[in-house]
Amino acid sequence: MPANLPIPSQPALEHSARLTQLIQDEIAASGGWISFARYMELALYAPGLGYYTAGSHKFGEAGDFITAPELSSLFGRTLATQVQQIMAQSTPHILELGAGSGKLAVDMLGELERLGCLPDSYSILEVSADLRERQQALVRQRLPHLADKVHWLNALPENFSGAMVANEVLDALPVHLVHWHDSAVRERGVVVADSRFAWQERDISDAALRETAQNLVVPDDYISEICMAERGLIQSLASRLQQGALLFIDYGFGAREFYHPQRNKGTLMCHYRHHAHDDPFYLPGLQDITAHVNFTSIAECGIDAGLQLIGYTNQAFFLINGGITELLAQHEPQNLREYLPLSGQLQKLTSPAEMGDLFKVIAMGKGVTNPPTGFARGELSRAL
């Protein structure tokens, strides 16, 4: 058990125990072993029990972590101008994947209304019924006059033109864990030992995963993640996009940095009540499990699916190029109660020591000839 973590309530422990039993039953039914990707999928998305499908608070001070939209309205307002530039080159529609608390949607719509360029529709694809209810409540509370523009989807539309937005979605996709050792490549999976989850390695049975792992050049005794789910997601999005662009914002690196020799234990991380640790077996269903994003792989998946790479940069360049400092300047510095919190939020969003460098923004699309201004300076495609 990770040290110094808050003690969960008895109902929370009982919830985790039910999910633990479900996962253990699947392991038994699968011959005693499942891939870590399957474990992660169940821990996060098992219907009614997974971290993202159950009812616990995940975002903000009362949850397990704070995302950029939760941190500051400046983030969503800046992103709105970039989305507007994509819509101007396609059609006035927005599709957000995994909208969290709904804060990003509310901030973007509010800014687009202020700019006089509201979309015809704002669609949200959300797998969590609980989060969908919270998003709907926030929209009704904050933007009741725009509620008829916001729609929730159970599946991707067959065709879409406009801007697709996904903030911190890729990091929550299930990943396979691979161990390169003694000229062999094996997959690290999950078994049950003494009624607890434990690691066990096996030869890689999936041909696509094996080929991907064998093509990577890493030092001996190296453990890292490979996300196969991102390929299906991007192919699905690309096949439906007629004209417009996808904007992914997440933490991660290009492949050379992702598989750096010193990153020999991978990037897997768990978040519970604002504590970060590396034990994915701790209280399944009560904690988030994430991995950093390999943006080289994301770009390659997009290009293979017929998308054009429009831009890639870090969050600091994207937000500053996109006008976040101008938004702050709209507030009077003399009004310390209002100005100082916003200034501190901007610092966290853009500082290299905070979110500014670790978080990246990648845009891929069809029929978009002018990249959004967020990519005007600091373009980092050479790092992919």
How many DSSP E strands?
16
Mean pLDDT: 94
- Relative strand content: 15-25%
What Rg do the Cα atoms give?
21 Å
Catalogue the unreliable spans.
none
What is the CATH third-level topology name? Rossmann fold
Largest sheet: 8 strands, mixed
Fraction of residues in H or I helices: 25-40%
Explain this structure to me?
Helix content is 36%, strand content 24%. It has 384 residues and is α/β, with parallel strands linked by helices. It has a single domain, classed as Rossmann fold (3-Layer(aba) Sandwich), CATH 3.40.50.12710. Strands 2, 3, 4, 5, 10, 14, 15 and 16 form an 8-stranded mixed beta sheet that branches. Strands 1, 6, 7, 8 and 9 form a 5-stranded antiparallel beta sheet that branches. A 3-stranded antiparallel beta sheet has the order 12-11-13. β3, α6 and β4 form a beta-alpha-beta unit. The radius of gyration is 21 Å and the shape is globular. The two termini are 37 Å apart.
